[in-house]
Automatic annotation (TrEMBL):
SUPFAM superfamilies: Acyl-CoA dehydrogenase C-terminal domain-like (SSF47203), Acyl-CoA dehydrogenase NM domain-like (SSF56645). GO terms for biological process: fatty acid beta-oxidation using acyl-CoA oxidase; lipid homeostasis. It comes from Salix dunnii. This is acyl-CoA oxidase. The lineage of its organism: Eukaryota, Viridiplantae, Streptophyta, Embryophyta, Tracheophyta. Residues 333-486 form the Acyl-CoA oxidase C-alpha1 domain.
Amino acid sequence: MEQKKQKPTAENETLIVSRRIQRVSLHLAPVPRPLHEHDTQEQLGLFPCARSAKLEVETEKLSLYMRGKYREIQEKIYEYFHARPELQTPLEISKDEHRELCWRQMYGLIKEAGIRPLKYVVEDPGKYFAIVEAAGAVDISLGIKLGVQYSLWGGSVINLGTKKHKDKYFEGIDSLEYPGCFAMTELHHGSNVQGLQTVATFDPITDEFIINTPSDGAIKWWIGNAAVHGKFASVFAKLMLPAHDVKGVSDMGVHAFIVPLRDLKTHQALPGIEIHDCGHKVGLNGVDNGALRFTSVRIPRDNLLNRFGDVSRDGQYTSSLPTINKRFAATLGELVGGRVALASSSTSVLKVANTIAIRYSLLRQQFGPPNQPEVSILDYQSQQHKLMPMLASTYAFHFATSYLVEIYSQMKTTHAAHLVGDVHGLSAGLKAYVTSYTAKSLSVCREACGGHGYAAVNRFGILRNDHDIFQTFEGDNTVLLQQVSHISFYCVLA
Ligand SMILES: Cc1cc2nc3c(=O)[nH]c(=O)nc-3n(C[C@H](O)[C@H](O)[C@H](O)COP(=O)(O)OP(=O)(O)OC[C@H]3O[C@@H](n4cnc5c(N)ncnc54)[C@H](O)[C@@H]3O)c2cc1C
C-alpha cells in the first residue's frame, strides 16, 4: 500500500531545522559531555587529546626500536643527502631534469657515499630494503630507480643466472658501470607473463640466440632505465629451438636473456635495437621508462640466464624441472623480492603521510567553546576516526612487513625450502593489501589537512602520484589477491 507522505507543516519543519542545527553545532562548538546520559549524539562530542596530559613515552627508545637494526646505513644515506642540498629534488622540475637528477642521486649514493646495494641483495636483503627505503624518503623516484638497477636488473642476473653471469656482471652492476633494465612487460601482455610474444631463437650454426619482436604488441613497454640510461636489459622471451617437424621450432617457454642495448662507450643504441620514450607519467618522473623493439638482435648462447634451463652447443635443452609450467613458476618465484621491497616501501610512505597529517592536526585549531581558545582539530572525533586507525594500521604494517623481510632474508641466505610458500603468499598478500591501503590513505591524509594539504610543499600530491603505481607494478593487486586465494585454497586442502 502506498504510504501517504506527511504534509510539511511550519511546526515540524522548524523542529527538523532546529535538530539539524543542534547536530551541526556539536561539530562546530562541541560540548565535552553528552547532552543526556543515553544520548546517542554523544558520538559527536569533543574527545580531547591535544590538550590532555602528555603520555609518558620514552620517544628516543621507541624511535630507536622502530628504526630497527639497519638504522646506521639509513642515517648514512640521510647524512649524505643533507650534506648535498644540490641533490635534493625541487618541487618544480621538468621530466628530463628529474631523470638526470635522479641518476646523479643514484650515482652519488654509489660512488661518493660508497653504498654497494648488490652485495646486500645477495648477502643481507634486509639491509638492501633499508637502503631502498631511505633512498625513497629522499625521492620515491630514486627508490624505484635503485630497485630497477639492483632488484630487477641485478636480481634477475643473480637469481636467474649462474656463476658465469655473476662473475661477468656483478661488479659492473654494483658500481653502475652497467646500468640495466628488466624487460618483461609488453604492450599487449602485462599481468599475463606466459602470454609474452618476444622470441629468442637458437641458431646452432653461430651458437647464438636471435631476439625478435614479432609484432607491435610484443614491443617491451614501460621498461625502467630504458629511455635514457640503460646499457643492458634482461629480456624475457620465449626460447625457441630448431625442431625437425612441420613447425621447424619448439617453444620451451619464457626464459630471460641478457641483451646489450647501448654501446658502452658511445651510449648509442646497438644494431637492431629501437628505443622509444614512454613519456611523461602521472608520477615517478625521475625514472626513464621506455619501449624496446628487437630486430634480429644476436647474442651469445652464454647470455641465456640458465639457472632453470639451459641449451647445449648442439641445441639440446636441459632442465632440472620437468615442465614449462614448473620452470615458469621457479623463474617468477625468484622475483618475489620486488614485492617484498614494495610492501615495505609502501609502509614507509604511509609512515610519512601519517606523520605529516597527525602533527598538523595537533597544531591546527578550528572553532571552540565561546570565549575560549579554539581547539585542536585532532580533538574532533571525526578527525580521530580518520587518522588513528590509520596510525594503528601503520604500526601493524611495520611489524608485518618487517617479519616478511626477515623470512625472505632467511629464505634467500639459507635456501630454506620450507619458507618458499610462506614468502610467496605473504609477499603477494601484503604487497596488494598495504599498497591499496596506503593509496587510499594518502587522499584521507590530504583531506585531513584541509587546504594546506593541497600545497605541493606539504608532499601529499607528490607522494600520492608517485605511490599510486605501487598498486600495479610488481604484480597488479587484483591478480596478486587471486594468487593469495589460490595459495590459501591449496593450503586448506593440504
Ligand atoms: C611506471 C611503471 C614502471 C614499470 N616498470 C616496469 C619495468 O621496469 N619492467 C617491466 O617489465 N614492467 C614494468 N612495468 C609494467 C608493469 O609491471 C605492468 O604495468 C603490470 O604488470 C600490469 O600489467 P598491465 O599494465 O598490462 O595491466 P593488465 O594486466 O592489462 O591489467 C589491467 C587491469 O586488468 C585487470 N586484470 C588483469 N588480469 C586479470 C584477471 N586475471 N582477473 C581480474 N582482473 C584482471 C587488472 O586488475 C587491471 O586492473 C611498469 C609499469 C609502470 C606503469
